[in-house]
Amino acid sequence: MSADLHLHTNFSDGTDTPEVLVALAKTVGLTTIAVTDHDTAGGVALAVAKGAELGLEVIPGIEFSTDDYNTEIHILGYFIDLGNAAFQETLKKLQKGRQDRIYKMCEKLQKMGINLQAETVLTLAGNQAPGRPHVARVMVQEGLISNFRDAFRGYIEFGAPAYTEHYKMKAVEAIKLVLDAGGLPVYAHPGVSKCDQVIPDFVAAGLAGIEAIYPLHNEGQTQHYINLAIKHGLLITGGSDHHGQESGRRLKLGEFVIDDKYVEQLKNEHLR
Ligand code: AMP
Ligand code: ZN
Ligand code: FE
Ligand code: FE
């Protein structure tokens, strides 16, 4: 009995459809998953339906990229009312920002001698929330670079010459948006953002949980964030951040799981 509360589909930069992801989750023995695409909930309904068909619990989720404190902070939202008007309005704005950014990023790359067309990237992405992994994948496919990692390292990672911003909310805005839409906001992979000083502000804004259990957290970090969650009276969550079978990441679905007790606590908080 195990769960994974952080998964991406091809509605953002994952490579599997929601249906394939859910079927695979069932096959590898997960009991509960959450679909948490970047700046879109487009894949949630399909995943929930497939979960109902196969007998696997699918929690609706999202992962917002936010912009604050000179770093990138991701806020997960669980159990959001997807029909909420402010939530839907914000998604439109975020997605337009992501699409515009692909054009800007390709312009920068072209100036650097990388002949990449925005239309090619948008076609490959085939969704409303295109991201940098789509750019990196097309660079590899078109033979413009030898591998995905080098595309990030040399061109599009934070601080690299073709890195391009897109419209983002402030983290506290995202927390409030999730709360106003009936959801539970969780600070994603805090050990990646390395910005613990923000946590009291997030708690004051209504943060519900911390994603303490995450593949890039070492044992010390995991314990540190579990302690912080306990100190602030927050939920502990976790997930693999799996991006699909073709994403090139080493960790396979089902290899990084969390105990069901964390899911129970999350569900109880939602029902409270
Ligand atoms: P975006 O939301 O479009 O800025 O893209 C974020 C995605 O890019 C996330 O899924 C990250 O896992 C991935 N990513 C960010 N930085 C790197 C990096 N240096 N190497 C590989 N993937 C990265
Ligand atoms: Zn991603
Ligand atoms: Fe993230
Ligand atoms: Fe993620």
UniProtKB/TrEMBL annotation:
Xref: InterPro entries: PHP_dom, PHP_domain, Pol/His_phosphatase_N, Pol/histidinol_Pase-like
GO molecular function, one term: 5'-3' DNA exonuclease activity
Polymerase/histidinol phosphatase N-terminal domain boundaries: 3-68
Residue runs in coiled coils: none
SMART domains for this protein: POLIIIAc
PANTHER family assigned: EXONUCLEASE (PTHR42924), POLYMERASE_HISTIDINOL PHOSPHATASE N-TERMINAL DOMAIN-CONTAINING PROTEIN (PTHR42924:SF3)
Protein name: Phosphatase
